[in-house]
What we know:
The chain is mostly beta strands.
Amino acid sequence: xxxxxxxxNEVFTCRFDLRHGLAHVSGxxxxxxxxxxxxxxxxxxxxxxxxxLQDASVTSGILxxxxxxxxxxxxxxxxxxxxxxxDGPFSDSEKDRIHKEPAYANIAETGFGVLHDFxxxxxxxxxxxxxxxxxxAFGRSDHFGGITGPALFSSPEAV
Length: 159
């Protein structure tokens, strides 16, 4: 899957490797005992291929993420943020974070929320706001079916 972003009249493209994974629907129903999920529901999501099989992941490109008034540009290779190619305080902080905590740099999820179409607006709470549209998560993926779990982080606090 390829996604093109337009930021301040500049185009950035990311390719997400969705081979080998299963997509999930978060519809708000948990009919099987022991099934975990989060509420509110209203999304579908998938863990991009993390390279756990013989071939490398082809997730790559430049991923723009807005932090307040700054857009941080992550350079992705093989399903990981390997560098930050923008300048600013958030860019510096994120560059430091992906180098100090490599598990954080894992692309854990790409999802598609639908709640915006029902008139829901962002409130600053990630579990609701991610359900409003396209979203991409970093870090732990094992609880979605991926391979990046707590043992790959430097400490429990870093998970």
